[in-house]
Amino acid sequence: MTEIERHEYDVLVIGAGGAGLRAAIEARERGLRVAIVCKSLFGKAHTVMAEGGCAAAMGNVNDNDSWQVHFRDTMRGGKFLNNWRMAELHAKEAPDRVWELEMYGALFDRTSDGRISQRHFGGHTYPRLAHVGDRTGLELLRTMQQRIVALQQDDHAETGDYEARLRVFAECTVTELLTGPSDAPDQPGAIAGALGYWRESGRLVLFSAPAVVLATGGIGKSFQVTSNSWEYTGDGHALALRAGAELIDMEFVQFHPTGMVWPPSVKGILVTEGVRGDGGVLKNSDGKRFMFDYVPDVFKGQYAQSEDEADRWYDDQENNRRTPDLLPRDEVARAINTEVKEGRGSPHGGVYLDIASRMPAEEIKRRLPSMYHQFKELADVDITAEPMEVGPTCHYVMGGIHVDPDTGQSRVPGLFAAGECAGGMHGSNRLGGNSLSDLLVFGRRAGLGAADYVADLDRRPDVRPADVDAAARMTLAPFDPPSARTGGASGADAASGAGANGAGESGAGENPYTLHAELQRMMNDLVGIIRTESEVAEAQRRLGELRTRVRQVFVEGHRQYNPGWHLALDLRNMLVVSEAVASSALLRTESRGGHTREDHPGLDPDWRHRVLVTHLARDGEPDGEHDGGVDPVLPRVAVGPAERAPMREDLLALFDLAELEKYYTPSELAAHPGNTAAPEGGTA
Amino acid sequence: MSYTGTFRIWRGDTDGGALTDFEVEVNEGEVVLDVLHRLQATQAPDLAVRWNCKAGKCGSCSAEINGKPRLLCMTRMSVFEPGDVVTVTPMRTFPVIRDLVTDVSFNYAKAREIPSFTPPAELAPGEYRMAQVDVERSQEFRKCIECYLCQDTCHVVRDHEENKDSFAGPRFLMRVAELEMHPLDVADRVPAAQEEHGLGQCNITKCCTDVCPEGIKITDNALIPMKERVADRRYDPLVWLGRTISRRRG
Ligand SMILES: Cc1cc2nc3c(=O)[nH]c(=O)nc-3n(C[C@H](O)[C@H](O)[C@H](O)COP(=O)(O)OP(=O)(O)OC[C@H]3O[C@@H](n4cnc5c(N)ncnc54)[C@H](O)[C@@H]3O)c2cc1C
Ligand code: SF4
Ligand code: SF4
Ligand code: FES
């Protein structure tokens, strides 16, 4: 076996985005020794790309806002499938988490009285998004990065070592979680550590830690048109599954309505919802503001019915209803899809997003500087003079690791998750701005949860050498010529040195780039924004083929900074996660939020209280059949329904009965305080 | 419109390397990073290049294109003629790891040397009040995506390894300015800017400002005002020069 670098920590945080950094700060402030591991450089995680803002009911711009209103908006946005406890904690705690960032040095845009300014966003009743122009994610991430540095400076002052209690392992990818024996008397199958590799050198690293916080973000790189970066290969989802945890809601994938559509090389890059929040409107090729035709029944009465009313709303929200351009994302994305399909699209297959005719050029540049820059630089379009062309792009996965709302712990002892890779909070559809706040609220809670777990532990599970060997072999396998791979041949020997594999000329083996492109195209076409039973079934069949080919993936060159190898390893995760998405999408025979079935177009109240749970198929389960038991390289997944716990009564009472009746079965509403008036601050 | 373009790319590692020529398809609307990705997919699967957002937001893809420090994802192919040879080399100021990837740990080390935001003790969370005009100065600097192109281009450290110890570079001198101009930061940052972070070594050539993909006026808005604050406490001929220049322009 090749030599492995070893480290020991109390808590290992995998992911240096908003969720990971917030978790690390919390665990470190609780006195634990913490390592943060991330695939790219420190400060580059996907969170930097977030633009519009961070939702928190601070009530700085409209003091009618409160956690109750935020909670209601979140549940509505998710079509009442959300884990209501998470939505409750999120709405209650988000303001404190945002204010905390100011203590770390964040500089949000201000109101005229000097408080944090808040902007409108789709699905939020009041202006609620704390923001910094259209680079809010950068501010959030940089602020927490600088907070980590501040903690390291404290440690330096005390111990002379910046990394005494908090160390960042950047450009280091975790490939497998390691657990203790499943027959351990106290904590069976508990987390013991993780194995990864340095991207730079290709050398393996072993972390021993009794608690791991997964904060690895999303899965968008399995789709062809996406706003997501190469990091979004669903690693955390797949790592958790393989370690024995469950995923939920994997059929729910958010397609953001406004991605760039031209030129081809930038297709999918996000156009922030802030454009619409600040006054931009969607138009079709006839120049018509088509969103007025797409207000669904469940939202009737909550949105403006005429352009005049919609335009008045920007200045007077008490007496007018909001523009349907700001419906939740799933609604807008489907509407755009329909307009294009029916022949009213723009030249490059999108629709128009017009802000140029709505406000002076200088105002646009001040409010949306990076959008101005992005279109100017990448598409030669001046958004202050002409409309943008936009269309749906794969953006966010609502589904994720099934965790306890309060502590973030999965069903694997010691394994925690937060941020985009955790599931439940957003139900079937996430509201814009609710992710950044989610990262802060649940990042902190996962950090706390991990700290408490470690404090209560009598004994730390040992990493088992056989598991380390197996994980190391798996990690190096893509360097083995496929012919030599059966029977658990070791890749370690083949690829331990520079330029070590001599099998390049054999010509056998699959190219990871080709496989990736095929997977992306297939997922986009068959499990994309609009789904049907036959197409999803076809996707499953093709995933089956890809599964065989992914096994044959073969990379050239050596282990030093080799992107082909990195992709080959990511493919293993993308495939498993794609299977979870497809299998879940096939089972849910209704349309809700980020899951639209053309063959089952309506909301079905009997599906509202059911979530789909993905776990590894066990031996004997039909999906688990494989010659000789569970496949260690690409274990199969199984998906089945589970009941969502009924909402606590006081929370249910926050909604009008009439609204709930659109979503719930009559028997579920027996507990509602009755047909009497709406509660305080009702939804009328 | 597609054509076959010629790319000359530095390939190698810590032991050395050389420029390697590639003929590769280029399509309408593409940026340099698209072409490098095509090379990876078709001809050089192990070509090392850093990137993340492909939208100019993360600052990962810094390199030098025809000798100029630039983001690979924000350099459109349309700025070249089809017959041009496009030369891509790693940032010169930092040690090469492999191909276009450099070791930028210098920057992380410098970041740690700057004392962090020091909040006023009397204010609780939620009590911060700042006017938009007052936060805007520091907000400009916080647009920084940490691409380190300014660090790469600054002649104080470019080809001057010996200065790296004493000089934080424009990005981190700007960080000092950002904190100094933060309306609620209570620390005094002026003496350290000069004595510990090397502000005096900057002779306001503005090369850093020229390469900043975020268009931050590093020299005019961060470095010169810091020099002025230093000068308010003691005399420094360069500041005097800086002031004269800005007065003449104004
Ligand atoms: C363009 C864009 C704009 C957005 N705008 C908004 C917005 O305005 N408001 C909002 O609320 N949300 C927005 N979102 C969504 C939001 O930004 C993301 O959901 C959120 O940032 C995810 O944060 P995270 O902490 O979960 O993960 P990330 O920030 O993505 O971080 C994931 C981390 O995990 C690491 N990682 C992954 N796999 C591994 C592995 N195997 N080993 C080691 N490390 C690993 C990565 O390197 C990275 O550091 C936007 C998203 C996009 C793409
Ligand atoms: S202005 Fe100063 S910091 Fe900027 S490049 Fe010139 S010398 Fe370097
Ligand atoms: S100041 Fe500009 S050039 Fe320098 S690191 Fe920041 S974004 Fe890059
Ligand atoms: S890839 Fe993010 S700036 Fe170029």
Automatic annotation (TrEMBL), chain A:
Keyword terms: Flavoprotein, Oxidoreductase
Region (Disordered): 475-511
Organism domain of life: Bacteria
Domain FAD-dependent oxidoreductase 2 FAD-binding: 10-436
Low complexity composition-biased segments: 483-498
Cross-referenced SUPFAM superfamilies: FAD/NAD(P)-binding domain (SSF51905), Succinate dehydrogenase/fumarate reductase flavoprotein C-terminal domain (SSF46977), Succinate dehydrogenase/fumarate reductase flavoprotein, catalytic domain (SSF56425)
A Pfam family reported for this protein in Swiss-Prot or TrEMBL: Succ_DH_flav_C
Ranges for domain Fumarate reductase/succinate dehydrogenase flavoprotein-like C-terminal: 516-622
NCBIfam families on file: PRK07803.1
Name the record gives this protein: Fumarate reductase/succinate dehydrogenase flavoprotein subunit
Automatic annotation (TrEMBL), chain B:
SUPFAM superfamilies to which the protein is assigned, alphabetical: 2Fe-2S ferredoxin-like (SSF54292), alpha-helical ferredoxin (SSF46548)
This protein's record includes keyword Oxidoreductase: yes
Pathway: Carbohydrate metabolism; tricarboxylic acid cycle
Keywords: 2Fe-2S, 4Fe-4S, Iron, Iron-sulfur, Metal-binding, Oxidoreductase
Cofactor(s) listed in the protein's UniProt record: [3Fe-4S] cluster; [4Fe-4S] cluster; [2Fe-2S] cluster
Domain 2Fe-2S ferredoxin-type: 5-92
Domain of life: Bacteria
One of the Pfam families matching this protein, by short name: Fer2_3
Alphabetized Gene3D superfamilies for the sequence: 3.10.20.30, Alpha-helical ferredoxin
UniProt cross-references to NCBIfam families, sorted A to Z: dhsB, PRK12386.1
Assigned protein family: Belongs to the succinate dehydrogenase/fumarate reductase iron-sulfur protein family.
Protein's name in the database: Succinate dehydrogenase/fumarate reductase iron-sulfur subunit
Organism from which the protein derives: Promicromonospora umidemergens
